[in-house]
TrEMBL record:
Name of this chain's protein: SHSP domain-containing protein
Region (Disordered): 99-128
The family this protein is said to belong to: Belongs to the small heat shock protein (HSP20) family.
InterPro entries: A-crystallin/Hsp20_dom (IPR002068), HSP20-like_chaperone (IPR008978)
Compositionally biased spans, kind Polar residues: 100-110
Keyword rRNA-binding set for record: no
Pfam families: HSP20 (PF00011)
Transmembrane segments: 156-175
CDD domains: ACD_sHsps-like
Domain (SHSP) ranges: 7-113
Superkingdom of origin organism: Eukaryota
Basic and acidic residues: compositionally biased ranges: 117-128
GO biological process: cellular response to heat
Length: 184
């Protein structure tokens, strides 16, 4: 290791995020193709900010990384019940909503039928949630975005170079575009 310096190159990117708003919960989908669970970190601050970060190796000395921060609305979610699952390159984060305390009694039903079995109900909700995430993942895996910021930057640089070469050729071929044509 003496005498050899390894320069690590970081390729930062902004993951695609999509919200699904429901009455009892919100679901955030973060598209993280190629990432594994152990390459991700999710933190919830006391100020209500969720920080999602991740790093994964691309090549020998190249690392892909991101940082996504989401500010939650104050007192909107049950923070102790927030959970996430990574399936097929998509992180599904479920944020259960708090029930409003000041809702009118007319809007609420007077009696609810008791659930058959609370454990069955919870597991069937998780099964539905997982099935929805898997289906979305399947569809979105087929529609992957193939360009990264690096490729986009390279394409822009090539386009700018081509425009400059074309401009130089036109000036050479047809003369300077700002020559004044003054007749005596």
């Amino acid at each position: 290791m003496a005498g050899t310096a390894v320069n690590t190159l970081y390729e930062d990117f902004e993951p695609f995020c999509k919200w699904q708003r429901d009455q009892g919960r919100d679901t955030l989908e973060v598209h993280l193709q190629g990432f594994k669970k152990d390459q991700l970190k999710i933190q919830l601050s006391n100020l209500g900010v969720i920080a999602i970060t991740g790093e994964r190796p691309l090549e020998e000395n190249k690392i892909s990384r991101f940082r996504k921060e989401i500010r939650l609305r104050k007192d909107s979610y049950k923070k102790n019940e927030i959970h996430a699952r990574l399936t097929g390159g998509i992180l599904c984060m479920v944020l259960p909503k708090k029930t409003p305390l000041s809702s009118s009694t007319q809007d609420q039903p007077t009696s609810l039928p008791p659930p058959k079995n609370q454990e069955d109900e919870k597991s069937s909700n998780k099964d539905r949630e997982n099935a929805v995430c898997r289906l979305r993942n399947l569809v979105l895996n087929k529609l992957q975005i193939l360009t990264s910021k690096k490729n986009m930057g390279r394409n822009v640089a090539v386009a700018v170079a081509l425009v400059m070469v074309l401009g130089a050729f036109l000036v050479y071929k047809y003369g300077h575009p700002f020559q004044s044509h003054v007749e005596n």
